[in-house]
DNA sequence: GCGTGATCATGG
DNA sequence: CCATGATCACGC
């Protein structure tokens, strides 16, 4: 079952709204996919299932999922109280960007300028096939959201570019944080030290804090 | 091997 | 309980 990409934002929204109150098992059946035996391993399954169902196209590229529409797709697991259960991965942290990057030219902005959020109820008490999809939210950051995101991004990227990797941890950033993003703790990438020399470091990613995605759910 | 899709697992 | 740091599968 191959779903073509949506031709317009309106078509994408309509598709997404048709998924409301449906279960993950239904969608997997529709796409002729088997639900994973071990969900704690295939962690990306739900995101990939929704990409397929909605006709997303970017694959593993560093671009928004719906390239021609400029829209990023994000699934968002909710606790039973309706609040986000986890942070949301945005993109890899560029460790070797030699020149200064403008916020609006960044991968983070490219992905966050317009996001289709698909929330779903993550409930450990039931099987993932019974988890329900909630109403989609097509979102763009408000002026104030963008101000904070840009500020976080600039402060964190400044540290990366100044070679202050040792001082970066997940406590920095109001909405946007940096955390490891690799196969495991021994994964290595090339970064810079304070002298501008190449050093080995962990691969890092930008993540949105759950406090922020909760504001998106309850504007 | 790297980036995307993310969630897991433990300490405090 | 929850955030931080660690981890897993897949496509290319």
Percent of residues in beta strands? Answer: 15-25%
Largest pleated sheet: 3 strands, mixed
Helix content: 25-40%
- Low-confidence parts: none
Order of helices and strands: HHHEEHEEHEEEEH
- Assign the structural class, choosing from mainly alpha, mainly beta, alpha/beta, alpha+beta, or little secondary structure: alpha+beta
Task: Please state the average pLDDT score.
Answer: 95
Radius of gyration: 18 Å
Termini, distance in Å?
36 Å
Question: Count of DSSP helices?
Answer: 6
Overall outline: globular
Strand order of the largest sheet: 1-3-4
Tally of extended strands? 8
Q: What does the model show?
A:
The strands form three sheets. The protein has a three-stranded mixed β-sheet with strand order 1-3-4. A three-stranded antiparallel β-sheet has the order 2-8-5. The chain contains six helices and eight strands. The protein has helices spanning 9-17, 24-30, 45-54, 107-112, 143-161, 210-217, and strands at 72-78, 88-92, 115-121, 137-139, 176-180, 189-192, 198-201, 204-208. The protein has 219 residues and is of the alpha+beta class. The radius of gyration is 18 Å and the shape is globular. The relative contact order is 0.16. The model has no long low-confidence stretch (mean pLDDT 95). The structure holds a DNA duplex (12 and 12 nucleotides).
